Records
---
Amino acid sequence: MNLKNFLFTCILFFNVSIQSQSVQKIDSAYNNYFKKVREIPHLHLNKTSFLQGENIWFQAYVFEQNSQKLHNPTSNLYVSLFDESGKLKKQKLIHIQNGIGKGNFKIDSSFTNASYFIKASTNWMRNFNEDVSFSQKIIVVKNRETSAQKIKKDSFFDFQLFPEGGHIVANTFNRIGILLKDANNKGIEISKGTIKDETGKEIDVFKTNSFGLGEAFLPFKENQKYIFEAILPSGERIEVITPVVKKLGITLNLINDEKNQNVIVNILTNSKTLQNIHGKNYKIWLHNTRKYIHYDLKFDESKKVYAIILEKSNILKGINIITVFNEENKPILERVFYNETNNLLTNSIKASITSKINDSLKVTLTNNHSEKLFISGSFLPPLTKAYRPDKNIASSILLNPYIKGNIENAAYYFNEQQKNRLVDLDLLLLTQGWSKFDWNQIFTNPPSENFKFENGIDITFAFNRKILPSQQVQMQYVDDENNENYALTIPLNKNNHFTLENSFITENTMLHFGIKSGENLYKISPSISYTNTFIYDNINKNQIKELVNTPNELSNFSYLFDDYIMLDDVIIKSKLQDQKKQENSALQMKVISKYYNYIESFYFGTDKYGFLNNRSGNAWNVNFGINNEFQSIVSTSNMVKFRDYGSLSEPIFTDKKLYDPSTIVVPFGFSKTKEYYAPKYPSFSEKAYLDYGAIFWKAGIEIEANSTFEITIPDNNIDSILLNLEGTDELGKLLVKQIQIKK
């Protein structure tokens, strides 16, 4: 029977009372539970399938749940890789600035499994009962096939029924959500299933969509069981029996009426139940962690159906939760639904190729939006198989924080090109049951601050030797991220300790320490302790559970090395010894230049020491291990001294041992960011590249309102380019856009 027709024929309205003393307990518990800031991370990956030798490139976004805007205070984000058994493989600490960060993982030869999982979370998020971390399965494409796992026939299917609101009540109409999945948690679509009573009589039919989701609406009788039978595409028949039918109780039906822009909430019960509850006050809460509205419902002894019609324009946008409480303030029914939001940016950005220069293309992005955009973009071959994310930035922010189950292809529900997405989303929410938020936790276990909100890294230096009043301890290091040099005189406390708070030092940074006595600087080495730069994380086992192995994705490319060059689709490997010698030399000069270009302090008397491109410089330790050849030059005179001559400096060598600091390479810190680079693909025309290769990746794109942004990408002789964009604006509106760019 049609749910909407039935309810409109017997609908009875109840009065709404916004003011009620009985809601105070729920009100205070709810406010207390959700008062703390909650972070929501999302990673936009350049791909989800990778060839060995490639990198996983990503841009990280961190939002605040209540405002649904970028969370500027967040600075420390942990991004982890897990293998298919759930074992942690790698973890990086990503520096988040104004809600955005970026990073990468190299898919090296140690990635021997076919699949891995990437996860993003913060230390602060561990304070909350609900897991809203980001996770995504990634595939490592092999050039050889591994053996498939043998499985039992009876492990293939997951066939479940979900009564709307939570349970089935006898002698009234009940809506039943249907879920049909295979062993890999992928939906099974069927065009017809049957519903039979205990005698075998067919009383109704159902179907499921491509995600294995369906529904039925039935009048359940007392002591009656119903059998749902599905005929699979293989011809096999499987069945499931309805859950226990309650003789007493109430049930909930919700109609998300897109045509009339209403949400109809119906409360239904039977005659036996009315004898026990008439005259009692129940409460209906409409909430979404940010706001709530509550209504009172008083049962009449003769009314079995009660309803409220909510205009969508007057209720909360995005995910909403309907919870029904009995007279004892106990939650007895719950339903999650979605009210379409205007937070999605659809036609705000365009992309086109504006010029071609040699072997490069200039792509222009045009922001037609009235706000500044913060986005990232993945440029791929047009028919790629490598970009299949389960979620996008919209589903991560608008859906994942409220749903406790795993969602197949959550990105689909926020793709406005999919005409059935809202109907399918309602089926998803029907089969999800209650929301992620447990009312027992809300009433009894509000979040505690057991894990600190991190802001950088606090580093404590402890010096064990006596420091005289006339002496100073100095420290210097280079920030590779910003190309800035830091030098300071350390203000020690009475215990000869000093804490550098909220630093954003990167991993493997060299710290130089010296104790200054008069004109001289001598070695001094501290012991170092620091705050958290690693979290003991894990992946949800339900996310990695696969009862069978899906077919491995294969390519004819071997491991992609960076020391290959392309010449007419022929691989030519350079002479390694000569090449490595040249590369080492170039690297050494690059490192030397980098360090000497950004030195700005360490004064010693009237002379300054260091290298600064023919400008007067400041003291710096030149003997920090660039290579043996360079060290040997330095060691002949122990240091190079620059005497100031206006705009030029004259280097002179001195035998004076004035500068002899100690150097410590710290094994901790934020991950160093890198600009995108691609491996040397053997061919741009082979199927392996067209299926799984990449053209370009660009993170950190910022486009002012109503302006353009230009990106230069390689021309890999492909007729068109698939550009996948994700991002946000300063107001929290979300961008998910896929553009086919024709040459």
Note: The chain has ten helices and 46 strands.
---
Amino acid sequence: MVKKDEFFKLEKLLSSVRTNTSNLSIKIFTNWIKNTKVVAVPFTFIYGQPSTGKTFLVKKVIENVELNLKNTNRGNRFSFVDVIQCFNQKLMFETIINQFKKREYKFEKKYLSSLEDAKTEIFEVQNLETRIDDFNEFVFSLNNLVDLHAADSLSSRYIVRIIDNAQILLSWGRNCNILRALPKIYEMTKKKFGVVLISNQTFDNFQDITNTFNLTNFVHFKNFTKDEMLAILLKEKPYDVKDDNLYLIYLNLIIESYEKGCRDLRELRYISKMLFEKYIDPVKNGKILECETFKLHKNFEKTLESFGSSLYLRDISSLEWENRLKKEKVDIEETRLLKYRDQQENGLSLELPYYSKFLLFASFLASFNPPKFDQRYFTKLGEGKKRTKGTRKSTIANRINPRLLGPKSFPVERMLAIFQSILPCPEESNTSEIQFQIKSLCNLKLLLKIGGLNGGGLDIFKLKCNIGYQQ
């Protein structure tokens, strides 16, 4: 399994695609952020599906604006809050105010020279934290923050509060006034305050509460197309994979398999990282070549089906999945060794069809018995006993066990004749079925083909039995 540090961060990959798009709404938002004198739109609503680069691009725009602004010796124009980390509005208000205060304090402090100074600074920063109970205290703290630096650059700037995952505010209930008050904070303070909400839901769910449709700048992040997703995920190709085409075919297979039930790029990225080791395993073992994409697809189908039922669940971590793959390899190897031991100790245990058992028995008799004894053993009348000269002792002494000499080849006609003689009901046998089962026994290597001219019929080539007496 490819480790996490071998991949780029998802946000960087998103930016490589989104920053090149000519989205008019993003340009409007960027121009509004850069405007330090005129309040263009005090309330901006950014929405789109998860994993479309909303949060990262907003942070990127803010960083670029702060770097390009002049006279940035003091203050911080932006405050970023993730609602997931705030379980109530009191904690969210305190986070916004304390971010500005701590930032101001850091600009005023010089480098510390001793441990005592460091302890003093920690104590002073803790004292800077403001406790806010309601929205009125929040507005009062904002006004004090700007009035305190009336002569500094902070008062001439447009202070922006960015609230990520704003859809969680809807779950706080209609009794929560924060959604009604945040868009109107500019009217309440008459200061250069702006609010940016980032949400996975559309503005229709917020409009009944905020009632600020005319004062809102909308920025919509559209879903990634298939080509964009392939371009992003291809940049996360593992370093040990040299062929881009192989990984591109794999990503295309993942997206086509799950795009109907999942358009989340983070989830597709997670799946592609988890399953690639399973996909490439036959290539590493030498069973399938890289160019044999159809065989790779067929070998990978069961894994795709089993993993499709756990989309978004993430019921197994990447480490557990890696351990499971290692355990499967060990189990397969142990099973193979156990089968080999069973075959060596107890012989081959294979359930064969009815006629195949008699065919195998007939081939064994044909391989280990001389043809001259067929009439004696397999005909009803048999042959008369012939008197031969010589002593019986010398004949027995010179006789060698046929099993020690190994199996001998025989024509197919002889095996079929023995088969008909030992079969309980030979009249019920089907010729086409018997020929098919002879071919199956050859494929199983229970019978070996010795001869045959240009793949001729059954009456040309010879066979040899490939099983022992114990089997």
Note: The first strand starts at residue 43 and ends at 48.
---
Amino acid sequence: MNRLEGKVALISGTAKGQGAEKVALFAAEGAQVIFGDILDDLGLEVEKKSRPLVKMPNIYIWM
């Protein structure tokens, strides 16, 4: 639907569970998502899964 196209979302705690779902939902709605977690390996997996959903690349940050 792209309700968030042109918007940027900043989300922390995104390596699993609700945080990972938020990344997917925001990306699917067109937002560029900047997100991070202390669980680096899991966070990188979330970033890889979100790539096909967005026009602009999402940014993952290890916290």
Note: The mean pLDDT is 88.
---
Amino acid sequence: MSQVLRERAIGMLTAGMSTRAVARELNVHFSTISRLQRRFREFGSTSNRPHNRKPRVTTPAQDLHIQRLHLQDRLRPATRTAVATIGLHNQRTRVWRRVGERFADVNVVDRVAHGGSWVQVWTDVCYGQRTQVHFIDGILNAQRFRDEILRPIFMPFTHDHHLMLQHDNARPHVARICTQFLEAKNIPVLAWPAYSPDMSPIEHVWDALDRRVRQCVPVPSNIQQLCTAIEEDWTNIPQPDHLCAKEMCCTA
């Protein structure tokens, strides 16, 4: 409640109105009025009590500025990369069952241990553009990331475009040879907080691809079929849905 409403509520209570009557008048829950009355009797004030919480990092004016920057969409020219996983043996399956039928055979689905084999895929997408998927054989280290992705794929994609790169803090991405390469090419990199995959605004893109792959008929049963399905479904996702870029791990 605002300070004005608090003082108004105390005035009504002092005038003899009940807590429920005041709550109805101010359109708040009666327990709120009850706590306010109890606190006023104990401390003689309706103001917030002093607390030991950490002070705010930003001022209200700075918060408003951040909101305006968000509305202006200053990251529209950003091109992004990240990591995701698509598994063909861990589908999102919903089951409608009666109480006590949790382990009935009809409600149990067989799974492949450890998710089966997998392929690594890298793509790059920014506002209005995207690359084709690039499949990575084996472990992607910093040197391979620079020589197989940044130099032959990413740089031609950013040619004649003033783009900002956003990717997570995976070791190949933040390795010295990769950061030095991007600095030499004058590619700005958006700083990304550590351990914050859920902050990525492009999770919905990979969710859309994941759903499309799972809906393939027939369902991919090997690596080659999975790669083909990923390529086709990636191409068929409407471009407005691709707002960022990502590197992902797909499981067969």
Note: The beta strands are 78-80, 85-87, 118-123, 125-126, 129-130, 134-136, 164-166, 246-251.
